[in-house]
Amino acid sequence: MDILNIENITKNYAAHTALDDVSMVIPEQSVFGLLGPNGAGKTSLIRIINQITAPDKGRVLFNGKPLELKHTELIGYMPEERGLYKKMEIGEQALYLAQLKGLSRRDAIIKLKYWFEKFELQSWWKKKVEELSKGMQQKIQFIVTVIHEPKLLIMDEPFSGFDPINALLVRDEMLELKAKGATIILSTHRMESVEALCTHIALINKSKKILDGSVKDIRKMYKSNLYEVAYEGTNIGFANALWTGYELQDTKEDDGLMKAKVKLLNGNTANDLLGALLPHVKIHSFVEVVPGMEDIFIMKVNETNQ
Amino acid sequence: MGKIGLIIQREFLTRVKKKSFIIMTILGPLLMGSIFVIPILLANSQDKVVKIEVVDETGVYGKKFPNDSLLQFSVSGRTIEEAKSKFKDEDYTGILLIKQHATTNLPALTLLHGQSQPSMKVMMTIQNTIANKLEELAGCDPKMLADIKGKLDVQTQKLGGEKTDSGMTSAVGYISGILIYFFVFLYGAQVMNGVIEEKTNRIVEVLISSVKPFQLMMGKIIGISMVGLLQFLLWVILTFGIYSVASTITGKEKMEKYRSDKMMNQRVKSLQDENATAMQEQATSTNDDISAALESLPIKLIIFCFGFYFLGGYLLYAALFAAIGSAIDSDADKQQFMLPVTIPLILSMVVSSAIVINPNGPVAFWFSMIPLTSPVTMMIRIPFGGVPGWQIALSMSLLIGGFLGATWLAAKIYRTGILMYGKKVNYREIAKWLRY
Question: What is the CATH number of the domain that holds A133?
Answer without folding.
Answer: 3.40.50.300
